[in-house]
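> Could you send the Leucine-responsive regulatory protein prediction when you get a chance?

Sure thing. Input:
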Amino acid sequence: MELDSIDRRILEVLQKSGRISNAELSEVANLSPSACHRRVQRLEKDGYIRDYVALLDPRKMGRPTTVFVEITLSGQADELLDAFEKAVAKVPDVLECHLMAGTADYLLKVVAGDTEDFARIHRKHLATLPGVAQMQSSFALRNVRQTTALPV
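Output:
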């Protein structure tokens, strides 16, 4: 399916205001409410809209510290990569895990309450992940820009 300018506008608005009513969205998209609803349903069905979520404030949730962890594994066998990925998916403090090309095998985005909490996460979870040979952690000092909105 090819996206037209109306689809792109709908996606743009929904990324920033996921709770907008269909009536308001139809006005922004310059469509009738029923036509707008059909388009949103099609965008959902075709997988352009993956999900609707509430974005929580990490500070209010007691997790103001963001740590980026580079992990190098002891090998590259499929079994080791699979075991690592299954185990890291179970660590609730890991918000993101990316398989990388470069110096590290994986890059993790971890949230913690503070440095002591991160030390606990490191000891209890990260250091026990299968195949970990080396880890390097970098603490974010300040969030300069963060968005969940993709360019459309």
